[in-house]
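I am going through a labmate's work and have reached the protein record below. What it holds is a sequence and that sequence's fold in token form. Please read both lines and tell me whether the tokens look consistent with the sequence. Do not assume that whoever made the record got everything right. Thanks in advance; the entry in question is below.
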Amino acid sequence: MSNKPIGIFDSGLGGLTVLKEIHCMLPGENLVYFGDSKRAPYGTKSRETITNFAFQDMRFMLSKNVKAIVIACNTVSSNALVKIKSEFDIPVLEVISPGSAAGLAATESGAIGVIGTPATIESNAYKKEITGLDSKCTVLQKSCQLFVPLVEEGAEFWNGKIAELTAHYYLDEVRDSGIDTLILGCTHYPLLKDVIQRVMGPGIRLIDSAESIANMLMESTAIKTNDSGKEGTVEIFTSDSINKFMPLCREILGKDNLSVEHVDIEMY
């Protein structure tokens, strides 16, 4: 057992969906979350910039004395993971592997769709992972560039007409392609799950990796989880406005007793 916290970071709000699942499945764990909303979205930036941002995020997490770090960002996972693992001596979990495995477990036809940021899709990380596990699968990928800014704009944009029109714009051809499973290849996208499901229809399964990551943490032999029986603490940090970030945290996590602190991430 270790009382040290688990660190979780993302380009903004999306990784809170991962934090929520980890807190639900491992309630005794102390958790530290950082959302880099000031510099979101990561997915439209170059690989070099994504890696520089990710290294700063990692160094901030290490300053909080964490025992493991969850990269709750598909863009970082698909573009900077190799360099991160070569530079930092700490257990690191990412979202591509568990999301791909969950997609393979769900599909019946072997036709899987993946939606994500431009950087995630251009990396082909999901396609490589899925076809590496099962070469018979076909993978259709689609970049949905406006989804992250839509989520970051606020909860009123997550399930309304603007979200639906945007989802139709990106997803109509994906829906009609013959896939039976759609991987939400960005942790922001589950916040649009209702509208995405409406556009895709009931016959297509949606996959997000939050539950899979929590299961990986529970099964990891490299990370000593906290089973003291006491509820763990949750610390939340943002690089952007606390006044904007806090109400959205409460909306996503369903908790009123949350506090958010600002951090100047460029110092790390």
Observations:
- The radius of gyration is 17 Å.
